[in-house]
Structures are given as structure tokens and as C-alpha cells.
């Protein structure tokens, strides 16, 4: 490792998203390694989206603390420059990577961890809205944590105006059917996405690929309109049309395409579990709380080592160091060797 001299070149990149990079850093004071989410140029007034997303992430993560939710150590807004930095506890890799390289040793445990995170989040009145493998982190002990809280919303109350789906930007092929028609939605959209993720872990590939996501949109809206709509047509439907479609969608059984894909899930307990998440009707889906009581997750023990307490102690020191000197260069950036 070498110290960063201001250049981003060759840094150890942990991940890259829509609004910046996540890099490996070490606190100079405590020597703790962490993941630093860097949002470059997000303070430029003509692009408020990135900033809004980061602020939302900070606000939510300050409020929710859970062992299966990634822990935010600190947020740093240097006095000069237009960048915003979020320091997180470090994970080994994300679930997308782990699935791709066949590194998921205990799918049941990961499922259990994320169900716990969702159950906690939902009980707090929040919807994650972007549950997918790349937003699930695995630490070195195989513990799973939900991350990326930039799209979180308070759950809709019955009397709230419908949320238009164009506002929702989550990944299309983890998206619940009701979001394609832009009517009321609630926490159960996270359960649908979660079901796709659990199936993906077991199958080793996405349950619904990108192309299928389009197909699914066609399947749902087409069923209701009696013909296959273009994507743009579907996105520009009026409120009453959407409500009508949503009513029909609720009564549609699991799409035949989806059903066929689930054939690859051979464990009957797991299949029943995944099916309970992938109900077209949001009200028929299991709640996160119910998922935790499902036999598939029953008996899934959480193992906590003493080491964890020590790690946390170190981290709080880091957080203090950041707070007292946010403008100083407090990180050593790990370069790729
Ligand atoms: P974005 O909003 O840009 O998608 P994320 O928070 O999802 O940002 O982070 C992007 C990627 O960075 C993740 O998919 C993951 O690969 C990596 N990453 C994020 N946080 C951590 C962390 N704490 N430890 C290790 N890798 C991380
Ligand atoms: Mg992400």
C-alpha cells in the first residue's frame, strides 16, 4: 500500500456505481480499513440528483443501525471542492460478484441475513426499493448486509397519491410487477426483489434477465391491454388505465415464464419460500417478518465472534477522528498492486 498523492489512478476500486466510486482506504489515525464511497462533483448546483441521493443515504443510515445493514462510519464534506465522501465498514465483496464466481457458501444464511435487514427496515416504515445482488455485501465471515440506501422511501400510506413508476429507478429485472404499471406500492416490492435474489443465488444466474424484464413488462401490461405494448406506451399510461391494469395484475397467477424458470430450484423448501415472495399480488406476498418464520430460514443461527466488538471499538475511534478533522487528509488510499 502507498499513500495517495491526490491522484485517483490505480486506487483499489471496490465498486463503481451511478454516482461515483467506492475505494479501499485506511484511516491514518486508527489504521482501520474501510470502504469510501466517493461522490464526485455532486455539490454542483445544476445536478441536485446525486446530492439528494447521497443525503438520503446519510439520513437513513444514521437512523437505522442493524447488524445486517452496512454501517456508515462517517460522512465528510470537505470545505473546498465539490465532492462528498461516505466511509463504510469494509466488506469482502458484493453478492453479484459472489454469485458470478460461485463463492456463495451458505445461500440460506445470506437469505436469512437479508430477510432480517428487510424486516427491520420495513418495521421502521421504510422501503429500500433497490434490492439486488450488487446492493448486498458479504463480509469476511460470510455475513450479509444490505447497502446502497440512496433510493429509500417512506412507505406509502393508503391515502397517499399513487407514485408514478417513472420516479422509480431500481433495476428493471428485480422490479415487482406493480411497479411496471405505476400504482400504489408498499414494502412488498422489496420482498419481490428479494425473492429474485434468493432464486439467483440458488440458480447461479439471474432469475429474470434484462431481456426477460422487458418480457415481463409485456406479459403484465399485455395481459391487461390485450396486446403487447411498447415500453414507451406502457410508461405513458394514464392513472385510470394504470389502476385498471393494477387491478388485473393482482389476480394474475405467477407468469408461466417465471414458473418455468423456477424449475431449476430443486430444493422444495427453497422453492416454496421463493414462490411466497414472487406472488403477482402484493398482498399475497409474504411479509419480511413472515419470511423469517418460514421453514426455509428456521434454524438459521447467527454467529457473532468477539472480534466483532473489537472491530466496532476501532471504528468509533475512526469516526471521532473524522469528525474532528474533516478537512485534513485522514485516509490512506490503497493502490492496486
Ligand atoms: P451505488 O449507489 O453507486 O450503486 P453502492 O453503495 O451500491 O453504490 O456501492 C457500489 C459498489 O461498491 C457495490 O456494489 C459494492 O461492489 C461496492 N461496495 C459498496 N460498499 C462497500 C463496502 N462497504 N465494502 C466493500 N465494497 C463495497
Ligand atoms: Mg448499488
TrEMBL record:
Which residues does ATP bind? 37
This one is known as Mitogen-activated protein kinase
Which segments constitute the Protein kinase domain?
Answer: 8-297
Entry similarity comment? Belongs to the TBCC family.
> Can you tell me which residues the record assigns to a coiled coil?
none
Amino acid at each position: 500500500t502507498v499513500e495517495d498523492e491526490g491522484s485517483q489512478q490505480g486506487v483499489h476500486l471496490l465498486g463503481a456505481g451511478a454516482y461515483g466510486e467506492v475505494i479501499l482506504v485506511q484511516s491514518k489515525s486508527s489504521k482501520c480499513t474501510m470502504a469510501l464511497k466517493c461522490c464526485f462533483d455532486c455539490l454542483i448546483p445544476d445536478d441536485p440528483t446525486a446530492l439528494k441521493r447521497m443525503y438520503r443515504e446519510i439520513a437513513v443510515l444514521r437512523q437505522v443501525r442493524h447488524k445486517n445493514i452496512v454501517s456508515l462510519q462517517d460522512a465528510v464534506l470537505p470545505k473546498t471542492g465539490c465532492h462528498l465522501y461516505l466511509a463504510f465498514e469494509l466488506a469482502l465483496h458484493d453478492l453479484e460478484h459472489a454469485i458470478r464466481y460461485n463463492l456463495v457458501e451458505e445461500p440460506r444464511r445470506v437469505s436469512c441475513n437479508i430477510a432480517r435487514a428487510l424486516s427491520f427496515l420495513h418495521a421502521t416504515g421504510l422501503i429500500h426499493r433497490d434490492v439486488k445482488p450488487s446492493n448486498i455485501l458479504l463480509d469476511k465471515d460470510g455475513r450479509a448486509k444490505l447497502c446502497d440506501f440512496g433510493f429509500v422511501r417512506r412507505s406509502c400510506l393508503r391515502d397517499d397519491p399513487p407514485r408514478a413508476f417513472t420516479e422509480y429507478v431500481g433495476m428493471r429485472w428485480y422490479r415487482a410487477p406493480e411497479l411496471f404499471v405505476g400504482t400504489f406500492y408498499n414494502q412488498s416490492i422489496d420482498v419481490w426483489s428479494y425473492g429474485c435474489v434468493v432464486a439467483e443465488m440458488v440458480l447461479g444466474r439471474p432469475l429474470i434477465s434484462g431481456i426477460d424484464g422487458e418480457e415481463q413488462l409485456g406479459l403484465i401490461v399485455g395481459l391487461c391491454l390485450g396486446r403487447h405494448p411498447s415500453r414507451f406506451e406502457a410508461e405513458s399510461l394514464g392513472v385510470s388505465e394504470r389502476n385498471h391494469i393494477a387491478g388485473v395484475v393482482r389476480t394474475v397467477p405467477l407468469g408461466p415464464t417465471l414458473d418455468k424458470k423456477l424449475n431449476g430450484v430443486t430444493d422444495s423448501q427453497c422453492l416454496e419460500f421463493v414462490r411466497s415472495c414472487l406472488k403477482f399480488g402484493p398482498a399475497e406476498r409474504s411479509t419480511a417478518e413472515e419470511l423469517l418464520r418460514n421453514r426455509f430460514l428456521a434454524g438459521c443461527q447467527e454467529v457473532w465472534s468477539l472480534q466483532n466488538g473489537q472491530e466496532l471499538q476501532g471504528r468509533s475511534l475512526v469516526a471521532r477522528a473524522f469528525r474532528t478533522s474533516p478537512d485534513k487528509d485522514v485516509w490512506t488510499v490503497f493502490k492496486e498492486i
